Q: What sequence folds into this?
């Protein structure tokens, strides 16, 4: 597998590669073939967790279900914005930054991030480090500073490279926006790179997906700064230069895993499930005793194609981004379309050409736009995406009306996700796809059909979990309204509920922890995270006595706000350069 956009899965227990046409999510089936020996060695390894394949919805029903999932609705939800109205139930208390942290983690978990060409020789130690579904941040590190395929991501001393934003005249007389800001953009290929304008603005990072929208791009940059700060701290404490990079990576990865286990996971999964899995072990996914010690984890396609697509439901249609792009600010509020636009993989880093910020048609052209760097007025204000009050930093908080919370996890996606820019699925520069193929819900449902994914009912039975009722599947609780389905289509949906939809419905009707994964989805996500940490060469699961050593607001704790505070030196001017 050469690039993440290729829809191919090497399923180890079936001994075959499922391969789709690139950019075509509407295909009814996937071609299956036996992998070559080289492919078996280098392929990112998937597995099928379910004991049997599922019966799939036909394309017409998938399209109707996708339309229902991207049509704003449900009680208390504004039909125009998809935002919760007075008394609405679509909001959560989860800071919106965790939506995009989840996407960053997905890119560390679910596909090949090392960008080594198929057949290119890889030393076995790097194969173990860089090509397994573990939580080891190879989406950040690639194969390290001394490997030819990754050296361009680094400075000569082992620090990760950063880029410089481009000063722009808007708003006038705001120096941080009007001047270049070193260290606040991802490093980019620049004018010396050949090819299209898209090639020139490409981020020099191991996984291009981390520049598909501005929120995850700025998060990737925060992790770059986190690594660099850890490098500096260890150097000051006398770690010898030959050991410095590996010591820094070990520290970064363990603190990252700790933050995921204690801060991120309990916000999206029933905390009781997380605690059970991490204290008493896994019951379902690659259970100890059924795997040999030292076996690398595989990635269940049920997780990759369904369960961990939960974050698509958490996306908001717009964000209070910084002092410029917010309600009442000099610029427009940061719509989801603008977050796509101000990225290199899906966007062109240029302002919208017309009055509609969500008109993304020009982004299909790889030569559209002149910008090669992020404009300085689009640097994120982290205080609006993460709650620093949780870290006892009231000086780093914003008024409640300017703070962003995630949308709750349910069966509704905001409607901008019905019209994805083609750069998000490797379709840029190709003939325009059919409108339904731009719909993220349709693409998710179709990917699952292509790999004959088990249904929600099948996994509930296999895992001995009480299944959803017919009423819960059809009516839910303020999510997708299925009135447009015929009686026969409803019957088909109830009998063979696509796993992704089923897991989102579980969260939607979760009475104990509304809007968080439970049942099939919660168990699968928690156990895959546990296995991914256990299988990492650097692992807090294999070393249960390990505790965080970096500064934190509580002793022996480490949260995402702690990570950002360390990465940006606790400095308001770095966490929020635009003031």
A:
């Amino acid at each position: 597998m050469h690039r993440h956009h290729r829809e191919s899965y090497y399923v180890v227990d079936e001994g075959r590669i499922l391969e789709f046409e690139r950019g075509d999510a509407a295909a009814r089936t996937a071609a299956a073939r036996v992998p070559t020996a080289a492919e078996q060695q280098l392929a990112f390894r998937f597995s099928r967790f379910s004991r049997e394949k599922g019966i799939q919805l036909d394309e017409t029903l998938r399209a109707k279900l996708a339309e229902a999932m991207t049509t704003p609705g449900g009680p208390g939800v504004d039909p125009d914005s998809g935002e919760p109205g007075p008394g609405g139930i679509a909001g959560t208390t989860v800071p919106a930054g965790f939506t995009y942290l989840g996407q960053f983690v997905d890119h560390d978990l679910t596909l090949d991030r090392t960008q080594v060409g198929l057949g290119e020789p890889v030393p076995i130690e790097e194969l173990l480090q860089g090509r397994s579904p573990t939580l080891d941040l190879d989406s950040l590190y690639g194969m390290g500073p001394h490997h030819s395929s990754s050296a361009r991501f680094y400075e000569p001393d082992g620090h990760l490279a950063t880029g410089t934003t481009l000063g722009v005249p808007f708003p006038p007389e705001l120096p941080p926006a009007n001047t270049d800001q070193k260290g606040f953009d991802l490093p980019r290929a620049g004018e010396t790179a050949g090819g299209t304008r898209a090639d020139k603005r490409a981020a020099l990072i191991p996984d291009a997906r981390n520049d598909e929208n501005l929120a995850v791009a700025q998060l990737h940059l925060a992790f770059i700064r986190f690594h660099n700060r850890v490098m500096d701290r260890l150097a000051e404490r006398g770690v010898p230069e030959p050991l410095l990079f590996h010591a820094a990576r070990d520290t970064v990865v363990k603190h990252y895993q700790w933050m995921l286990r204690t801060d991120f996971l309990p916000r999206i999964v029933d905390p009781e499930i997380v605690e059970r899995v991490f204290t008493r072990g896994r019951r379902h996914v690659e259970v100890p005793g059924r795997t040999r010690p030292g076996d690398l984890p595989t990635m269940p396609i049920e997780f990759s194609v369904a369960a961990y697509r939960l974050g698509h439901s958490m996306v908001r249609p717009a964000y209070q981004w910084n002092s410029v792009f917010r309600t009442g600010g000099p610029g427009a509020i940061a719509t989801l379309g603008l977050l796509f636009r101000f990225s290199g993989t899906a966007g062109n880093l240029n302002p919208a050409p017309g009055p509609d910020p969500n008109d993304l048609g020009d982004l299909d052209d790889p030569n559209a736009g002149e910008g090669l760097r992020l404009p300085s007025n689009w640097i994120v204000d982290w205080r609006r995406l993460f709650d620093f009050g949780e870290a006892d930093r009231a000086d780093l908080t914003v008024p409640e009306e300017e703070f962003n919370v995630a949308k709750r996890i349910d069966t509704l996606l905001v409607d901008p996700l019905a019209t994805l820019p083609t750069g998000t699925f490797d379709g840029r520069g190709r003939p325009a796809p059919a409108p339904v193929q731009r719909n993220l819900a349709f693409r998710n449902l179709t990917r699952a059909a292509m790999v004959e994914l088990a249904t929600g009912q099948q996994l509930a039975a296999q895992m001995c979990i009480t299944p959803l009722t017919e009423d819960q599947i059809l009516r839910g609780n303020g999510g997708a309204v299925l009135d447009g389905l015929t009686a026969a289509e409803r019957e088909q949906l109830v009998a063979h509920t696509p796993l992704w939809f089923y897991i989102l419905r579980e969260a939607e009707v979760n009475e104990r922890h509304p809007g968080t994964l439970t049942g099939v989805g919660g168990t699968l996500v928690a156990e895959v995270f546990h296995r991914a940490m256990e299988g990492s060469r650097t692992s807090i699961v294999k070393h249960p006595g390990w505790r965080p050593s970096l500064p934190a607001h509580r002793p022996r704790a480490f949260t995402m706000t702690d990570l950002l505070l360390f990465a940006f030196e606790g400095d308001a001017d770095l966490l929020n350069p635009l003031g």
In short: The CA atoms of residues 420 and 438 lie 5 Å apart. The chain has one domain: 49-575. The chain has 20 helices and eleven strands.
